[in-house]
Each structure stands twice: as C-alpha cells, then as structure tokens.
C-alpha cells in the first residue's frame, strides 16, 4: 500500500480493494476503476477524488463541470476563465490563455433558446435554468479555448442529456452535476446529505484514514455540539434547525453531521432563518437575493460573486472555512483568496491551507 496516501493505489490489487471499500456493489466498483483509468492522472491517482468528481453513464466516464474547469487551470494554460453574465435566459463566459496576448479574449454565449433547439430542456433545466446554462457554457468554452487540456472530455450533465436514461436516472445524474446529488430524494424541509458506505466499510475507512487536514471532527453528537459551542453558535438556534429539518444528530453518520453543519448551522443566514428549506439553493427571485445579502453580510468577500457560483460550494467544508477566514484578511489578501475560490476544487483542503497562509503572511504568489 502507498505509504504516502492510503487512497493512491500502486497496484491493480490495491485499486480493486479500495474500489470495493468506496462502493456498494461490484458494478459501482468496476465503474470507479474505469473512471480512475480515464481520469486518475488528473487527480494524482487519488481514488477518493476520482469518485468525488466523476461518474460512469452507461459505460461512458464523465466529469463534474467544476472538475473540467479545474483540469484547465491545472494545465497552466488559463489566465482567466470567468462567467461574466448569468441569468435564467443566457450565460456568457470569457476565457484567456496564458500563451496569448492579454488583448485576446474569447467568449461563448449559451442561451435557453439554444438548449431548446438541442432538445435539452428537462425538469432540472426548468428548476435550475441559470445553473444549467452556466455548466454547459463553461464546458463548451473549456473545449473551445483549451482543447489540448480537455479535448474529448465531457461533463456528467452533457453525457446524461444524450444518453438513453430513465427520467429518474437522468434527474439523479444532473443533480449530481449541479452538486446536490441527494436533492431528488429530499423533502422541502430535509437537508441533502451524501450517501455513505455500509457501516463495515465506514469502520475500515475510519480505521485506516482520518483526514489530516479537516479542521473539525463530527464522529459523535457531543463533538457536534462542542464545535457549535466553540464557534459561539447559539444552541437554541441549532436545536431549532434540528427540529425544523427533522434530523437526529445522535444517529447521523459523521459525514451527515458535517453536511448538516455546513449546509445549515455555520452560516448565519441559514441558521437564523425559520423559512428557508434545507435545499435552500432552490429558492428563486427576491428570496435568492435575500439569501445572497445574508451571506455577503457575514462574508463580505462574497459580495461581488453571483450566488449561483458559490451556493453549492459554500456547503463544502474547505470552501466554507476559507470564506470564514477571509473576514480576518486584508483587502489585498482577500483579492488573492477570491481568485483561489474560483480556481480550487471546493472540496480540496489545500484551498483552506492557502487561506491560512495568506493569514500568516507566508502564501507564495
């Protein structure tokens, strides 16, 4: 076994064993191994990161949209890749290459009308039009401007749209692409939490790998409440949200406690609200503007970001902790962190480490 990182297999036997640990059946294990063969080199061979960023759809490996963008940045070709306009009718993205003059800006526009012409409009498109337009526009411009990095790579929602799938399976895959994989099974007052392996596999994972980078532990109900207390989070508000969402902290898995903490408890606007649903990202119009105002009041670094960009990132622990730390940074360091928030995978603790380095004054530019 790789002594440096438990999740980076060095032999076929290790790959098979870890795939069996991370999945629930033989088919899922085979799909994960195939995705690792296709995409593992983009994630330093880390099987957990491959699982978090990929899916196999009828035997076709596919990436999360954010992962496609991350691969472009990792190639070193990207000077800028930015969503400059987004709403329910159209998305405009711009990109610049490091090996071209700064005046060379390429743009791509994807509209609702284009999606209709391509016969893409399905329930998720109607529920999340802005998000779906962003996902599709970013994927297109990545392949258009950085073909040597991502040519031939497609996102989960792209392959799902052109595969022969049941409506339920299509919905599940597109929901995963949008970052709320369990959202389809959630009631309005239920907090989406990730699926977890069986208890036996969870025990194996915990016994061999405890995250070296995670800031907080959620192994027990006591640890959950102790964390809330250490963060000076009002216990009455916590219990109110627990009751409102109908969750049981004691019987939750550690991952479910973490998910609930970062989706609802840690942020003022979600913890103090008595009307937001657990999947609060689904609110629209004026309600969404109020949510953005709440987040940007607590975290000024988010003020000039579109909530569509950060709404699924802010519930990921590394991204959330980096944003929280931004309140302690200078304006100049906040500008640097803002760039990192756009470039890093929101589940990567290196993002928080970078924020900490900015705080300590040792970050390398």
Brief account:
The protein is mostly helical.
Shape: globular
Radius of gyration over C-alpha positions, nearest whole angstrom: 20 Å
String of helices and strands: HHHEEHEEEHHHHHHHHHHHHHHHH
Q: End-to-end distance, in Å?
A: 35 Å
| Low-confidence parts | 181-212
Mean pLDDT: 84
β-strand number: 5
- Helix-strand category: mainly alpha
Helicity level, as a percent range? Answer: 40-55%
Major sheet size, sense and barrel closure? 3 strands, antiparallel
Structural domain count: 3
Spatial strand order of the main sheet: 3-4-5
Would you write up a description of this structure?
The protein is mostly helical. It folds into 3 domains: 1-57, no CATH class; 67-151 and 167-179, no CATH class; 199-206 and 214-360, no CATH class. Helices cover 52% and strands 8% of the residues. It contains 20 helices and 5 strands. The strands form 2 sheets. A 3-stranded antiparallel β-sheet has the order 3-4-5. Strands 1-2 form a two-stranded antiparallel ribbon. A hairpin with a 2-residue loop joins strand 1 and strand 2 (60-63). Helix 4 (65-74) runs parallel beside helix 7 (129-145). The longest helix has 17 residues, at 129-145. The chain starts with 11 loop residues before the first helix and ends in a 5-residue tail after the last helix. 35% of the residues are buried.
